[in-house]
Design brief:
Layout (H helix, E strand, L loop, with lengths): L9 H12 L3 H5 L13 E9 L13 E7 L7 E2 L15 E5 L2 E2 L2 E5 L2 E5 L9 E8 L2 E2 L3 E4 L6 E2 L8 E2 L2 E3 L16 E7 L4 E2 L14 E2 L3 E5 L2 E3 L1 E5 L8 E7 L7 E10 L2 E2 L4 E5 L1
Parallel strand pairs: 12-23
Antiparallel strand pairs: 1-2, 2-7, 3-6, 4-5, 4-8, 6-7, 8-9, 8-10, 11-14, 13-14, 14-20, 15-16, 17-18, 17-21, 19-20, 21-22, 21-23
């Protein structure tokens, strides 16, 4: 029987980690002032829709957590994730909505210059999707974006898309230079953009049992060496579209504070420059 978790209190550990890693959200959580002025027309920047973990642009995949940049996208003060009456992630924050082919997407956060959403699973099987942001009754123009099976990206601790990955050690502590993982141990890597799942993804639904697993094959390398993927799928209590991958760190590998890690999903690799710390 596959083992998904190697530590106590996974919900608390992952929640803390994701508060640090989901693009842009850390700004609000740490009490920093928003960088964008409120008001003006609602508009999406050129190449302004990207993977929330890697910032890769050009296409989206079903269930991918994306960040949209622009102006007039939401309130001047960041509004964070909320649950609706069903316990699903809300599709409206501070009167902001993000629509993919007219379908409202679950929202991670919203503010004037940036909004993060989960691409609806309804785009699966399509070649493109029309994206539109609505705020206070004003709509942006629709932006056409290609749809692909997978656009994987690993979340990073400083939300830059590079450097220390959003990774938990086998004992549930956050991987860092001061807290490296041991060779031969498991680490849990947090990513998005894996595409459609089995069972099929349900927009905004927190992870449940059975946990949704990517249809696409997931592989990993650590320090350039192939690493066993012990589990790839949803995390209980966390929104559909957030992927947890448990990877066995190879025994024969150089240690250090910045060892490269790459996931490949459906033949598509995550961004370069993401690392973990090993001892």
């Amino acid at each position: 029987m596959e083992k998904r978790y190697f530590f106590n209190g996974p919900f608390r550990c992952v929640a803390v980690l994701l508060k640090l890693s989901i693009a842009g959200a850390f700004t609000c959580l740490f009490g920093l002032a928003p960088l964008f002025a409120q008001g003006g027309s609602v508009s999406i920047s050129a190449n302004g829709v990207g993977n929330a973990a890697s910032y890769a642009v050009g296409s989206v995949s079903p269930g991918e957590i994306v960040t949209i940049f622009g102006s007039g996208l939401g309130p001047g003060t960041l509004v964070g994730l909320q649950l609706d009456s069903k316990g699903y992630v809300s599709t409206s924050l501070g009167t902001t909505q993000v629509l993919f082919d007219g379908v409202a997407a679950p929202l991670i956060f919203a503010w004037a210059g940036q909004v993060s959403a989960v691409v609806p699973y309804a785009v699966s099987g399509r070649t493109s999707t029309q994206v539109q942001v609505s705020y206070q009754g004003q709509n942006s123009i629709m932006v056409a974006i290609p749809v692909t099976n997978a656009v994987p990206g690993i979340f990073t601790m400083d939300a830059s898309g590079r450097g220390q990955g959003a990774i938990l050690n086998q004992n549930g502590t956050v991987n860092s230079a001061d807290n490296p993982a041991a060779l031969g141990s498991y680490v849990s890597v947090y990513a998005t953009g894996e595409g459609q799942t089995r069972p099929g993804g349900i927009d905004g639904k927190p992870g449940d049992t059975p946990a949704p697993a990517p249809i696409a094959t997931v592989t990993a390398t650590v320090g350039g060496l192939n690493a066993q993927v012990q589990y790839a799928g949803g995390s209980p209590g966390l929104v559909a579209g957030l992927l947890q991958v448990n990877v066995l760190v190879p025994q024969r590998i150089a240690t250090g504070p910045s060892v490269p890690i790459v996931l490949t999903i459906g033949g598509q690799p995550t961004q370069t420059g993401v690392t973990l710390s090993l001892r």
